[in-house]
Write a structure and sequence with these properties.
The chain is an alpha+beta fold. It has a single domain, classed as Archease domain (Archease, Possible Chaperone, Chain: A, domain 1), CATH 3.55.10.10. Helices cover 24% and strands 39% of the residues. It contains two helices and eight strands. The strands form two sheets. Strands 1, 2, 6, 7 and 8 form a five-stranded antiparallel beta sheet that branches. A three-stranded antiparallel beta sheet has the order 3-5-4, covered by helices on one side. Strand 4 and strand 5 form a beta hairpin. The protein is globular and about 40 Å long. 32% of the residues are buried. The model has no long low-confidence stretch (mean pLDDT 94).
Length: 139
């Protein structure tokens, strides 16, 4: 996977800056960055598909809620995900199809122990490549 994010300094947690040409690609890149931070997506087979939905009153709230739903699918349902297709994105709602499989400790090695996606200093801003956002993950 070509990385669309970079690590940024943070005292205790994991912080990344993600870029996207538009709001859709920004959301996709943020979701894929989450997967990449957690495990090697190249080790994941696309054998199952799930729908993920989120709502929010601002673009930032929508993004964080979307990432939290992805994280919930991974943590609670034991999924490892490797692809996202956004099927609907409005100012206040997102729906996406995600593919992956169930976690298998023999094949999937965890990279980071993330506990939560946070709102800390989240601000979607214009950049020279379209849009950017910094996201902090509680570890």
């Amino acid at each position: 996977m070509s990385k669309k994010y970079r690590f940024i300094d943070h005292t205790a947690d994991i912080a990344i800056e993600v870029n996207g040409g538009d709001i859709t690609s920004l959301f996709l890149n943020c979701g894929n960055a989450l997967f990449d931070l957690l495990y090697d997506v190249d080790d994941v087979s696309a054998t199952e598909t799930h729908t993920v939905n989120a709502t929010g009153e601002t673009p930032e709230e929508l993004l964080i809620n979307f990432l939290r739903e992805l994280f919930f699918s991974i943590e609670v349902y034991g999924n490892v995900l490797n692809d996202i297709t956004i099927t609907k994105l409005t100012e206040s709602a997102i729906s996406a199809e995600v593919t992956g499989e169930k976690y298998d400790s023999d094949r999937h090695r965890l990279r980071n122990d993330i506990k939560a996606v946070t709102y800390h200093n989240v601000n979607i801003a214009k950049s020279e490549c379209g849009l950017k956002v910094a996201i902090v993950f509680d570890t």
